[in-house]
Amino acid sequence: MEIIPTILALFYLTVSAHAEMTTVEELTFYTNPGVSISPVKLIATLYIPKSDKPVPAMVIISSSGGVMDHVEGYYSRVLAQSGIAALVVDSFKPRHVSTIEEDQSLVTSWMMENDAFAALSELRKDNRIDPTKIGIMGVSKGGIVAQNSAMLLRRLSRRTGALMFALHVPIVPDCVTQQFRNAASTGRPIFYMLAELDDYTPAKPCFEYAERIREAGNQNVETKVYSGQHHGWQFIGPVLYKKRAENYSACTATIEDSGDYTIKATNKLVDKQHVSDWMKQNCVVHGAHVGGGTEKHKRQSTADLISFLKRNGF
User: What distances in angstroms separate CA 171 from CA 133, 219, 268, one per listed residue?
Assistant: First the structure.
């Protein structure tokens, strides 16, 4: 029998005790009207713990595979059972898309970022939620949103003023193509959760970006890389090779203040309106390894997540 460390055992006893104290609701609301964002009514699922006082909350944005029970559903249940509400946003179904793994341009991270801020605004209206303690998290594509939503440069285009999340948890985000030259952030805590063997969204660029964000003034940036893990460790079982997945790991670029991209390999400036097509033609490859997670690792990484949230007042 596997011996679970005491801290993890106590954690799972605690969440099990609260399992029957969670309610699940479906919400609909329109996306945030950012620049070049078409109006769309979003679908979201709210997991909320029963409480006699307002609770913290996390907005959860899905990966490019769409909302999945063993990823977004799993995190939502764990959060709710830990006394933290969770709002899972479905950015795909309202746009008549099921997955974007083979074509990331079908639903962009910019669209999903505006969905996230609409969710933030929606939660702030709910008197069961503490409006000062609403964070954001996501895996892979959702991790990009969790990361980019912290950057000050995005505010003008989002038209959200000073609205901000209380903290950010990017899980295996793309730090290859999604680094802003201006790394100034809101200053709110950021926790990068990364995978050592990730060949889809590699860990090393995220360490570099985290350091640049610190240098730009935010000292509340943490990173953790999980040894032996691949992209999408939430999938318990063997490592799978997705041969048709669009892979941007060779497309290292920096996003300028204008929104245009400077390609590192050539120092070429590519217009933001055409950068997706340019990358598909010049540096995108297909195929990536995903999964291979274990129950032990899933417990440990989940405990790390909850620990980060609790340390920051959630």
Answer: 19, 19, 29
- Residue pair 224/231 in contact by the 8 Å Cβ criterion: no
Can you tell me the distance from the alpha carbon of 209 to that of 206, in angstroms, rounded to the nearest whole number?
5
- pTM score of the predicted model: 0.92
CA–CA distances in Å: residue 61 to residues 66, 73, 90, 173, 274 = 9, 11, 7, 12, 25
Closest CA to 169 of 145, 133, 201: 145
Residue pair 294/236 in contact by the 8 Å Cβ criterion? yes
pLDDT tens digits along 238-294: 999 999 999 999 999 999 999 999 999 999 999 999 999 999 999 999 999 999 999
Token look-up 């609409």 returns 118
Q: Give CA angle at 65 (62, 69), nearest 5°.
A: 65
The count of other CB atoms within 10 Å of the CB of residue 21 is 13
User: Are the C-beta atoms of residues 249 and 201 closer than 8 Å to each other?
Assistant: yes
